[in-house]
Task: structure prediction
Amino acid sequence: YVVFTQVSGGLGIAGLIALFAIVSALGLRNNLLALALIYAAGGIPYHTWLLKTYIDTIPRSAEEAALIDGAGVATLLFRVVFPLMAPALAVSAILSFIGAWGELILANLFLSGENRTLILWIYSLMSNVYSVQWNRFAAAALLYAIPPVVLYIILQRFLRKGLAFVY
Result:
């Protein structure tokens, strides 16, 4: 895993060029759904690894006890496994949200006009090097921080358990 992360960092520009060529050839530039699919495809390996590692810590005895009590597969998943996975699911959800919420490079590459994300609008406030409108920038940055804070407050009790496991 460590070797992969070191190697993949050097392939970032080549990957962006290939991704841009594919998205342009498919006619999906300036499409928010295409950008969301790219984010999902990039996050699936990491979140799969995260959730699989957490699932390995769930005691088999809990699953076996539910099966002995007559629970079916669906009942086992929804009443035993998923409630025990709540901390890992919360960590995965918030990491995925923050990753997509704060991402600038792909959004700037693929989106333009009215489809630009909020981070691109905030970035455009800084684009004039001679006069930055600091009051608008500060207000936008404050508003930009509200959704992650609200999500953290909602998932806080799960995050403590999940982050203790992950890190």
About this structure: Residues 33 and 135 are 32 Å apart (CA to CA). The chain has one domain: 30-166. The first helix runs from residue 2 to 10.
